Amino acid sequence: MAAPFLALQPGSAAAQQASPPAAPAPGQTVLNVYNWSDYIDPYAIARFQRETGIRVRYDVFDSLETLEGKLSAGRSGYDVVVPTSEPSFSRLVRAGALRPLDRAAIRNWGNQDPALLRQVESSDPGNRHGAIYLYGTIGLGIRPDKLREFAPDAPLDSLDLLLKPENARRLARCGIAVMDSSIDVMPSVLRWLGRDPNTTEPRDLRAAEDALLAIRPQIRAITASGNLMDALANGEYCVVLTYSGDVIQAQARAREAGRGVQIGYVAPKEGAQLWFDMLAIPADAPNPEAAQRFIDFLLQPDVMAGITNQVRYPNAIPASRPMVDAAVRDDPNVYPTAEALTRTFTVNALAPAAERARSRSWGRFKAGR
Ligand code: N2P
């Protein structure tokens, strides 16, 4: 995607994605940020620019495959990137591709929930290379009213809705879509099959591939997550497998549009994949000092509350909670309950050969053979 300077039309979806280019003033520091699409509060960028005089150049991606492709060669030119704890962030940590954070320069570091930091320590021993940005689960965006119409007896709390061929067949006319990411989809399919989401056994992979191929004819779109949110909000699909907050943002957009499209989120009862997106600095970042300032800025409670209110993913700063809109704060699909968390699972980075096998399997699923 293009490398725009961020426009400042708060609230508009477009403002989160792109803007007309505006050149930095001569000598002005530019901070290059590479973040997920629909994943920032435009006011936060405006405030950072105003307070620091640093110009933010903001690019977006919408799958881990795209992010890894961009970063694996090095010299991406980015100062701040937002890889998911597993597998991408941990792979970058192990490859030495990230710069250790200078904690002394991140005064707001201590605002993070220590229990959540401990959870990501398995990806980054000592939490040396990343601060937690936002987290969430992987599940289904659904239109409950349409499901009742097309498949009245289908469960509304399970991946059965998508992965049981008899359900997929009935829901196909109403629209099924899956985000295009083997990394982020295969583990949930394995879990639904009762197998280890982190398996490297060829027969497990084959079973997941067969399960996906069995519903392949019923799937209308396999496309990057960034293409699914507005389509879901517009009522184009009845079942979409994607990231939690993207569904909850779609729900909010559908409500604003007022055309009667109801959206719900399902964290599958078989176990939803839990992930953490990390703020990190590439080892070869052109401007690591500005990157540190940006991370420090984001870790402030009021800034994070604004981000959570805008994008509907939970953050790791407990002091932000009182400033999060009650509707967002009390939505168990945004902040999972302790009980729901016991039904989540996390993934590990696979060895390169296993990752390639998974990606080939995904390619066969997409091609339908
Ligand atoms: C934002 C999706 C981010 C979640 N649109 C993926 N980790």
From TrEMBL:
A single GO molecular function term of this UniProt record: polyamine binding
The keyword Cytoplasm is annotated on this UniProt entry: no
Keywords associated with the record: Periplasm, Signal, Transport
Pfam families referenced in this protein's UniProt entry, alphabetically: SBP_bac_8
Gene Ontology cellular-component annotations: periplasmic space
CDD domains from the UniProt entry: PBP2_PotF (cd13659)
GO biological process: polyamine transport
Primary location recorded for the protein, binned into one broad class: periplasm
Compartments, record wording: Periplasm
InterPro entries, A to Z: SBP (IPR006059), Sperm_putr-bd (IPR001188)
SUPFAM superfamilies: Periplasmic binding protein-like II (SSF53850)
Free-text function comment from the UniProt entry: Required for the activity of the bacterial periplasmic transport system of putrescine.
Protein family according to the UniProt entry: Belongs to the bacterial solute-binding protein PotD/PotF family.
The protein, known as: Putrescine-binding periplasmic protein
Organism from which the protein derives: Teichococcus deserti
